[in-house]
Amino acid sequence: DTDGTVTPNDAGLDWAVGKKKTDFVGIRGLTRPDLVAKGRKQLVGLKTRDPKVVLEEGAQIVEDPKQAIPMKMIGHVSSSYWSENCGRSIALALVAGGRDRMGETLYVPMPNGVIEVEVTGMVFFDETGGRLNG
């Protein structure tokens, strides 16, 4: 779901970077202005409004499906599957300003129509941790 352009923060993994370390391979890169800029694409979860619809991996995401073509793409679906445990489709996506969009409705234009999606966290099963902590 990530590539060489995604930082630990973009992937929601900044907790894994040692904050007390003064030097390590890659530390300079993590402070570059373009790598900490507001609005970078961040990894988020997506739930389709129709739980039976499984998104296509690589599908583009837009804010306004009625905009003129070529549409302004704000992200793409990085992985998408049917989850038997959740009883619905689930997906991950890289979306501009992703974590600031929680609960927002976005759109995936496809040849057969537009698919509505909700931006969510990346935990789809036992979101509250009840099974782990119960």
- CATH names the topology as Elongation Factor Tu (Ef-tu), domain 3
Q: Tally of extended strands?
A: 6
Q: pLDDT under 50 segments (min length 5)? A: none
Look at the structure and name the CATH superfamily. Aminomethyltransferase beta-barrel domains
Helical content class: under 10%
Strand order of the largest sheet: 2-3-4-1-6-5
Mean pLDDT: 92
Overall radius of gyration: 16 Å
How would you sum up the major sheet?
6 strands, antiparallel
Counting DSSP H or I runs of 4 or more residues, the number of helices is: 1
CATH class: Mainly Beta
Q: Determine the strand fraction and express it as a percent band.
A: 25-35%
* Element order: H for helix, E for strand: EEEEEEH
Q: In the CATH classification, which architecture applies?
A: Beta Barrel
Given the C-alpha coordinates, what overall shape results?
flat
Count of structural domains: 1
Terminal CA distance: 30 Å
Question: What class, by secondary structure content?
Answer: mainly beta
